[in-house]
Amino acid sequence: MSRYFIRLAYDGTAYHGWQIQPNGNSVQEELNKALSLLLREEIGVTGAGRTDAGVHAKMMVAHFDCETQFDAVYLTDKLNRLLPPDIRIFDIKPVHEGAHARFDATSRTYQYFVTTAKPLYNRGYVCRLYQEPDYQLMNEAAAMLFDYEDFTSFSKLHTDVKTNNCRIMKAEWTQLDNETWVFTIRADRFLRNMVRAIVGTLIEVGRHKLTPEGFRRVIEQKDRCKAGSSMPGCALFLTDITYPY
Known about the structure:
- By secondary structure, the chain is of the alpha+beta class.
- 22% of the residues lie in helices and 27% in strands.
- The protein is built from five helices and nine strands; from the N terminus they run βαββαβββαββααβ.
- Strands 1, 2, 3, 4, 5, 6, 7, 8 and 9 form a nine-stranded mixed sheet that branches.
- Strand 2 and strand 3 form a beta hairpin.
- The chain is globular, with a radius of gyration of 19 Å.
- The model has no long low-confidence stretch (mean pLDDT 96).
């Protein structure tokens, strides 16, 4: 039995997230079916994390175990032909048997895109704001994320995680053009719904409905009800995952 890492990207519009769902299509399920068919054995992939319904990935990593010997370049090509057009495989690499796509990852990076213009060609991948927020004030609030580890206030309620602690490495709004901005956040791990909840709360700061110090109090209260609404998933992308090897 050998273990492999597989790197892929996907448009999450048509999926109920990465993880297999009882009543909805998922990226994990599509990948399992394709690999099992091509390798002629039951394959189950383990992802580096979970993306929510409608969220996209420019870079996702997963691992799987397999007894069948195969040519990685050939299998990559066959997978790209077999999988739906909204899932793309970059490559497949052998790794040591203890390597784990989820537990070995040292950081994950997400980006959230917003615009004040009426989106046209990219309307399924950006969130429209109907007034220009104060991005300088939002960055002032975002910098406060570095002072904390417990992000219960931005976590979906009733999840099965053992801790709500995360180490934030980057959190910053940057301008792409006159109308479009992107929020980039990197951490060792993320809680369910965390990025969209953080962005929603920062938008309230940008609209002067919440002060930066109020944003700090939201974090310290460790109460999801105190934070802002979650932003739509269509504008969120998982863009990078790093490993020590």
